[in-house]
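Hi everyone,

Forwarding the result from last night's run.
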Amino acid sequence: MEKETWINDVLSSELNYKSPVSSIELFNKIQQRIHEEQATLTWALPIAAASLALLGLNILFLINQNNKVNESNSPNEFSYLTTSNQLYSHVEN
């Protein structure tokens, strides 16, 4: 019986608990700090432009690498079309 009473007291204690009331001054300070720390348009535009430029350079680099791979594969395809059965063509018998 004591255990049940204790459990009921603990569970109902949260219902009696009231949260503390914060001051309006503290709320205003928090709002002011949030407003001050937000990114402004003067920084957002250069960062966006730099990000787009970096993305464009990466895309150009990937396209250039892909073209180099395609160009280098063309002659290698013909090297497999030999009439000899030698695995190493640079070794002469």
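Residues 28 and 34 are 10 Å apart (CA to CA).

Cheers,
N.
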